[in-house]
Amino acid sequence: MDTIRVDGVSCIRCGRCVKVCPSQIFVQEKAGGPVALSKPENCIVCGHCVAACPTGSVAHAEFPPAKVHPVDYAAMPTPAQVELLMAARRSNRALSQRPVPQEMLDRIV
Description:
This protein is α+β, with helices and mostly antiparallel strands and 109 residues long. It contains 4 helices and 4 strands, in the order βαββαβαα. It is elongated and about 55 Å long.
């Protein structure tokens, strides 16, 4: 498989891959037009294109379907919950001598 490809049959030409690609590899001449690749060797392997595609039409060798997980937006915190969390944890000056458990570090990474 090529490193990156766009399935022209299933692609709905929404342009999301074009908008999220920091390397500007995806090209769409006009809104609703076909999506093409330009200089795919410039890919920085971020995976934004695969994650943003609503139909799974963007395939990337480094991001097989098993590696890309859909986001459950219903499980996301509300803006008020995020604001409360930030207010409660706004400083990292309250250091502790307790070591951080390895499984927690693994989950963060």
